[in-house]
Design goal:
The structure is a single chain. By secondary structure, the protein is α+β, with helices and mostly antiparallel strands. It has 3 domains: 178 residues, Alpha-Beta Complex (Aldehyde Oxidoreductase, domain 3); 322 residues, Aldehyde oxidase/xanthine dehydrogenase, molybdopterin binding domain (Aldehyde Oxidoreductase, domain 4, 2-Layer Sandwich), CATH 3.30.365.10; 146 residues, Aldehyde oxidase/xanthine dehydrogenase, molybdopterin binding domain (Aldehyde Oxidoreductase, domain 4). The chain contains 19 helices and 30 strands. A hairpin with a 5-residue loop joins strand 11 and strand 12. The protein is globular. The protein binds pterin cytosine dinucleotide. The site of pterin cytosine dinucleotide has 34 residues, from helix 14, helix 15 and helix 17.
Length: 782
């Protein structure tokens, strides 16, 4: 539990910028303080540098010609009219001698479903690339792209995953199936629900969402005089991108440098794709620099989508509220080309048990290809689907029993003294206090008073009814035991540089990682600079996804800083003719001295200057690769909604949240992360959905049609503090970048269902917007 915070004098933290009212629970430590983001002045002054800002002399503009049909055979591509425009060249699939792109090497992904970089025979979704226009400027490129005439012979589109699963129309006839991946087990235990007094079944659709980063994708590439290629990418994963580029283009990774400058959001979707590979291929093939920036509507159809999971659940237990068995049948829409999304039901399976001790769980997942935009990671990636399913199922079970949803949760929580805890789906939870989180948030919102108000409104029978929704969740960060790289180097002026393989694209790593290193080195935070994103400067890295950067990248930076301190002690010992064991670093002031003696002493600038003069500065540098088991952040959210039962309109009145990510490094940034996550979670519950018509034509390919909420659509959320450290790393930190998303959606969905319970409504599809709610009420009236 979070101890009472102690107010600390900012004089103890030389020079650091703190938010007013700043507190830290750790005396004389910068960690745990609300340090203002070092990167923000740059962004606020418009000084961020994105790929689009890159001056790249002589670069050609790339415009992709994209399929307007979801499924068709290509009869031919006529480029003559386009190429009649001045300085326009058109590349077709026949010209491209690289690829296919994917599928990625995740276990179980059907290898027969690779994506040609440019379609040659068949297009498989609206947005598939059929040709590439090269022009001197963007306007000409758009004009020329419209003049490229593609002769299509339409094929029957497969739009719903249910249709795809029938295998009647195959997207890849040579594969003989639309099945892209299996997860869990197809076996049914006939006795799964034995001993259950009550068994409830239902369906939940975790609808398809578009990631909508404010900066759309952007890529540029140039071949240097030495033949090495530099690719500037708006990405989350520069080092992995270099490997995939090398693999797809048949190059030695050493021939490629990837640079990711500032990136305006990714939300899981900005990992290397066919477009970026083509930019690099074109730069090599034509010997000219190339650049491309996606338009918004292009981003809405061509950047991979997220979620798109259909779940049938069955939950059973005793009349006193104990859950005994749970079964999930998952149908994952993978879109036209299987990438990460096809594999994600494996994570849903792993996290199926949620925060509950459920003795028997069955999971069967099938991922199928459809003629739609490919599905990849999107904030939460496989875990929101798990928590949405168990939290809806638990509420349905509670409703059947006539029991308060909070009470049913209490009766099933994994107890706080049961950690480490292995679930029957083989997740090894590190630390947690699930009941503690729920009680905290219930107290904070005044749960009993809310229920009393709800009862009163129901008695009065007005049109505006109150709904109260709970979700208790656990998620997984650093889900596949990854390793991250960190390097710390002391510069000649005594400042420090941290190099990290993590890649910040909105998460504030320049501040967080500087705080972590500053803490170990005893330097002011502004004397530490964080470098990332350039594969020539940072030796290795995995990048940022799965909310793993703080726990593994941050720990690697911390361990490297510790090693630098040890190296510095050796150096100081040499200068003072003492034993390194007798040298201490006074971290409050950043000075080395002999234990128990105030003098002689050397500050970091003095030590660095002396080492530089002696040509020993290079000794003050260390690298670390930190590998760790996953961690399991958890929390509880309560949502309060008002539903107009005549119009179906839903208004979110309150959202209170405990999001426990272990020890927090910077609560200010962590709260910002939860805030953004909650916005995404609420958006799924109430607003957003990618919609296709029966031909596979997207109907939501602009912000006019896609209900991307603005600040005006969201209430201020109420943060409730809780910190339960993880034993898996020295920082005690778990991830927090996705938690808000995972907790918020089921709380809001459950709140809408709770408001509608007296009206006989048992199911409302997400997004629970006015139309879906109104329809559900009318359906129930029948
Ligand atoms: N933090 C902390 N203490 C912890 C954990 C985190 O103080 N115990 C703070 C740190 O300041 C850290 C930040 O939270 O810089 C995020 O840390 P972490 O939880 O480790 O997450 P990552 O940095 O790995 O970010 C990934 C995560 C993911 S997977 C998605 S998707 C996502 C997200 O972050 N996409 C984002 N947050 C986003 N925020 C923005 N602005 N844009 C996106 O695209």
């Amino acid at each position: 539990m979070h101890p009472e915070p102690r107010l600390e004098s900012s004089a103890a933290l030389p020079g650091c910028s703190l938010q007013p009212g700043t507190v830290s629970s750790r005396p004389l430590s910068i960690l745990g303080n609300r340090v203002l983001r070092k990167e923000d002045p740059r962004f606020l002054r418009g000084e961020g540098r994105y790929v689009e800002n890159l001056p790249l002399e002589g670069a050609l503009t790339v415009t992709f010609v994209r399929s307007l049909l979801a499924h068709a055979r290509i009869g031919g591509v006529d480029t003559a009219a386009a190429e009649a425009l001045p300085n326009v060249q058109v590349i077709t699939g026949a010209d491209v001698d690289a690829g296919p792109f994917g599928p990625p090497p995740f276990p179980g992904l059907n290898p027969a479903m690779g994506r040609p970089l440019v379609a040659t025979d068949v297009v498989r979704f609206v947005g598939d690339i059929v040709a590439i226009v090269l022009s001197e400027g963007r306007a000409t490129g758009v004009d020329a792209a419209e003049l490229v005439a593609v002769d299509y012979d339409p094929l029957p589109p497969v739009v719903s995953p249910q249709d795809a699963a029938k295998d009647e129309v195959l997207l890849y006839p040579e594969a003989g199936t639309n099945l892209a991946c299996r997860s869990g087990s197809p076996e049914h235990d006939e006795k799964l629900f034995d001993g259950c007094d009550v068994v409830v079944s239902g369906t939940l659709v975790s609808q398809r969402m578009a990631p909508c980063p404010l900066e759309p994708r952007s890529a540029a590439a140039e071949v240097g005089a030495d033949g090495r290629i530099t690719a500037w990418l708006s990405t989350q994963t520069p080092h992995q991108d270099r490997m995939v580029l090398a693999g797809t283009l048949g190059l030695d990774p050493a021939q490629i440098r990837v640079v990711a400058p500032d990136v305006g959001g990714g939300f899981g979707a900005k990992m290397l794709n066919a477009e970026e590979v083509l930019i690099v291929w074109l730069a090599r093939r034509l010997g000219r620099p190339m650049r491309w920036t996606e338009t918004r509507s292009e981003s809405m159809v061509a950047l991979p989508h997220g979620r798109a999971q259909h779940v049938d659940y069955t939950i059973g237990g005793t009349r006193d509220g104990k859950v005994l068995a749970y079964r999930l049948d998952v149908l994952q829409d993978s879109g036209a080309y299987p990438v990460l999304g096809a594999f994600l039901p494996n994570l849903t399976a792993l996290m199926a048990s949620g925060v509950y001790a459920i003795p028997r769980i069955e999971f069967e997942g099938r991922s199928v290809v459809t003629n739609t935009t490919p599905i990849s990671a999107f904030r939460g990636a496989g875990r929101p689907e798990a928590s949405q399913a168990i939290e809806r199922a638990l509420d349905a079970f509670a409703a059947e029993l006539g029991m308060d949803p909070a009470e049913v949760r209490r009766r099933n929580f994994i107890p706080a003294d049961a950690f480490p805890h292995a679930t029957v789906t083989h997740a090894a939870y590190d630390s947690g206090d699930y009941e503690g989180a729920l009680e905290l948030v219930l107290r904070s919102v005044g749960y009993d008073d809310l229920r009393a108000e709800q009862r009163q409104r129901r008695q009065e029978g007005g049109s505006k009814q109150l709904g109260i929704g709970i979700s208790s969740y656990v998620e997984i960060t650093n889900g596949i035991d990854e390793t991250e790289f960190g390097e710390v180097e002391i510069m000649a002026d005594g400042s420090a540089v941290v190099r990290t393989g993590s890649f910040s694209h909105g998460q504030g790593h320049e501040t967080t990682f500087a705080m972590i290193a500053a803490e170990q080195l005893g330097l002011p935070v502004e004397k530490v600079t964080v470098h990332k994103g350039d594969t020539d400067e940072v030796a290795r890295g995995t990048g940022t996804y799965g909310s793993k950067s703080t726990q593994i990248g941050g720990t690697a930076a911390r361990l490297a800083a510790d090693e630098v301190v040890e190296r510095a002690k050796q150096l100081v010992a040499d200068y003072f003719e003492a034993s390194p064991a007798d040298i201490a670093l006074d971290r409050a002031v950043g000075r080395f001295r002999v234990v128990d003696a105030p003098e002689p002493a050397l500050s970091w600038p003095e030590l660095a200057a002396r080492a530089a003069a002696d040509e020993r500065l290079g000794e003050l540098k260390a690298t670390q690769d930190f590998k760790s088991a996953p961690t399991f952040p958890f929390g509880a959210h309560v949502a309060v909604v008002e539903v107009d039962v005549e119009t179906g309109q839903v208004e979110l009145l309150r959202l209170a949240a405990v999001d426990d990510a272990g020890t927090l490094i910077n609560p200010l940034i962590a709260e910002g992360q939860v805030h953004g996550g909650i916005a995404t979670g609420v958006a799924q519950a109430l607003y957003e959905q990618v919609v296709y018509d029966e031909d596979g034509t997207p109907l939501t390919s602009t912000f006019v049609g896609y209900a991307f909420p603005s600040a005006a659509d969201l209430p201020s959320w109420e943060a409730v503090e809780m910190e339960t450290p993880t034993p898996t790393n020295a920082l005690g930190a778990k991830g927090i970048g996705e938690s808000g998303t995972i907790g918020a959606t089921p709380a809001v969905h459950n709140a809408v269902m709770d408001a509608l319970a007296p009206y006989g409504v048992r199911h409302v599809d997400m997004p629970a917007n006015g139309e879906n709610v109104w329809r559900a009420i009318q359906e129930a009236k029948k």
